[in-house]
Specification:
The protein is an alpha/beta fold and 196 residues long. The protein contains 8 helices and 9 strands.
Length: 196
């Protein structure tokens, strides 16, 4: 506990030095010019000018660092009695493939993607694939009612919506596709509506 107290105290006494040191532990595509810009408080900007890819930091750097065969993701669903495990290398490769699929749909840096899925490994893969491309993902809890999903579609204006066909909950199957179709049908700002 002594080490925790020391680290915690340092984070409070000199937060910029503390976070600059912590940031050295990850890979940056472009270095930051300033750790913290508090000139417009309460709107703060951290690592001003810096650029990184969170997918690279979550996966690629571990593979490159020799940890490719270590487990990165373990899935264990007591509801479906399904178990799956992915090493850093396996997960990186799955994410790269799905990022390619998103790119083939025109997803680029800065685009928005809604992920409407249950808690399955594929949801993690979709989120990391968005990060790999520099797209912004918005996770919507799988099974949300159509009107709630429509509101999120209207807010995000996604280029792509990634969804599962259904989710399995204790004692019932939740069909996502009809909910998604209804949400898209009632959303007036999504690109699918503009095609009608």
């Amino acid at each position: 506990m002594g080490r925790f107290d020391e680290v915690y105290r340092q984070s409070l006494e000199d937060p910029q030095e503390f976070w600059a040191e912590a940031a050295e532990a990850i890979d940056w595509d472009a270095p930051w010019a300033q750790v913290l810009d508090d000139s417009s408080a309460p709107f703060y900007r951290w690592f001003v000018g810096g650029r990184l890819n969170s997918c690279h930091n979550a996966l690629d750097r571990h593979v490159e660092g020799g940890r490719g065969d270590q487990l990165a993701l373990v899935y264990d669903s007591p509801v479906t009695n399904t178990k799956a495990a992915y090493t850093y290398r396996e997960l990186r490769d799955q994410v790269a493939r799905f990022a390619g699929a998103l790119a083939a749909q025109g997803v680029e840096r800065g685009d928005r993607v809604i992920v409407y899925m249950p808690m399955v490994p594929e949801a993690v893969i979709a989120m990391l694939a968005c990060a790999r491309l520099g797209a912004v993902h918005s996770v919507v809890f799988g099974g949300f009612a159509a009107n709630e999903l429509a509101t999120r579609i209207e807010d995000a204006k996604p280029k792509v919506i990634v969804s599962a066909s259904c989710g399995i909950e204790p004692g019932r199957l939740v069909e996502y596709k009809p909910l998604l179709d209804a949400a898209i049908g009632s959303s007036c700002t999504c690109r699918w509506c503009r095609r009608r």
